[in-house]
């Protein structure tokens, strides 16, 4: 039997901008997942279907200015306002279903911003947030935790994703190396003036390098929603993921393992990849964590650390040890 394709979905931003996506629906929904992405909603069917299998409708939406959504693409500029509008629209459309915000990298930023936009005096219509390898803001992507510029992957990302409605092919390795050398010699802003970028792309590039870091406690500390943060020991945003978990005032769980920004999909070593699969991968974390929040998921014995009412600490952690090939779960200090 052929599966039904995702249904076209439309809602509008506060200025009337058409925000388009695709929603994959399941027969007996017990929840609703929202993913807002700059990486083409149509390419997320596998992820959406995995949420359907858990009992969730899943909306994947192109952010403003990307793919089928209208407006101008300006990274990190509109996700709070637009995300808040989307949530309000969905709460009317699917009244009564608990809502989960989910996303990796930039989409983790959109999830956090949408939750911030709809939280009023500590109350939120969001039931849970799952943020994987979060790219928290412009400055967090431009500079590492020690204040060094992250030049190669910023040039690569902005060339590929940051300038146009649709992503472009990545720079050839030799050309990327040439631009990195130019940026280090002339400065990241000055060098870009010779790369053939449009005036609007150069404006965004300058905004990237002049942005200030997000004060996470001030920006998100009022959100009383359980948070699951998943990071990678080799991810360039690993320090910011830990910073997010520490700043979160509501119960939060931090999970990490021996991978980088592409998570387990980016692990090349076959022995390590096999060990990750044997340990259950991220499913071992996500499904039990959802169940522990009273949401559709798969209960597991280890989540007792999340639900023990006798423990006042709201922070917990899971670490996948590559040597033993097993997850370790523990409470952490508040």
Structure description:
The protein is of the alpha/beta class. The chain has 2 domains: 251 residues, Rossmann fold (3-Layer(aba) Sandwich); 66 residues, no CATH class. The protein is built from 13 helices and 10 strands. The termini are far apart. The model has no long low-confidence stretch (mean pLDDT 94).
Number of strands: 10
CATH level-four homologous superfamily name of the largest domain: Alpha/Beta hydrolase fold, catalytic domain
Question: Number of helical runs?
Answer: 13
- Helix/strand/pairing category: alpha/beta
Radius of gyration: 20 Å
Please write out the topology:
Layout: E1 7-12, E2 18-24, E3 31-37, H1 45-54, E4 56-62, H2 79-93, E5 99-104, H3 106-118, E6 126-132, H4 138-142, H5 151-160, H6 173-186, H7 188-192, H8 199-210, H9 216-220, E7 227-232, H10 238-247, E8 252-257, H11 270-278, H12 283-292, H13 304-307, E9 315-321, E10 326-331
Parallel strand pairs: 3-4, 3-5, 5-6, 6-7, 7-8, 8-9
Antiparallel strand pairs: 1-2, 2-4, 9-10
Helix pairs in contact: 2-3, 5-6
């Amino acid at each position: 039997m052929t599966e039904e394709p995702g249904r076209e979905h439309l809602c509008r931003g506060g200025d009337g901008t058409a925000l388009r996506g695709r929603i994959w629906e399941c027969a007996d929904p017990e929840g609703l997942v929202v993913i807002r992405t700059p990486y083409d909603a149509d390419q997320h069917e596998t992820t959406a279907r995995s949420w359907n299998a858990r009992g969730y409708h899943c909306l994947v939406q192109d952010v403003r200015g990307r793919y089928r959504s209208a407006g101008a693409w300006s990274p990190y500029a509109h996700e709070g306002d637009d995300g808040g509008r989307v949530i309000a629209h969905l709460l009317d459309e699917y009244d009564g279903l608990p809502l989960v915000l989910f996303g990796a990298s930039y989409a983790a930023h959109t999830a956090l911003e949408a939750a911030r936009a709809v939280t009023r005096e500590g109350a939120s219509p969001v039931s849970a947030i799952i943020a994987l390898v979060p790219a928290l803001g412009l400055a967090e992507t431009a500079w590492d935790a020690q204040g060094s510029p992250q030049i190669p992957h910023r040039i690569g990302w902005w060339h590929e994703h940051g300038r146009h409605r649709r992503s472009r092919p990545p720079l050839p390795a030799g050309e990327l190396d040439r631009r990195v050398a130019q940026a280090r010699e002339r400065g990241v802003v000055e060098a870009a003036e010779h790369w053939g970028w449009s005036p609007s792309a150069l404006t965004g590039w300058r905004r990237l390098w002049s942005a200030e870091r997000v004060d996470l406690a001030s920006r998100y500390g009022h959100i009383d929603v359980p948070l699951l943060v998943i990071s990678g020991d080799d991810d360039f945003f690993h320090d910011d993921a830990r910073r997010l978990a520490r700043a979160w005032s509501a119960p939060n769980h931090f999970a990490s393992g021996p991978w980088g920004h592409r998570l387990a999909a980016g692990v090349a070593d076959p022995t390590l990849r096999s060990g990750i699969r044997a340990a259950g991968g991220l499913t071992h974390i996500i499904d039990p964590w959802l169940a522990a929040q009273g949401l559709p998921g798969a209960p597991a014995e280890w989540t007792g650390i999340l639900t023990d009412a006798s423990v006042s600490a709201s922070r917990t952690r899971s670490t996948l040890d590559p040597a033993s090939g097993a997850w370790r779960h523990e409470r952490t200090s508040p």
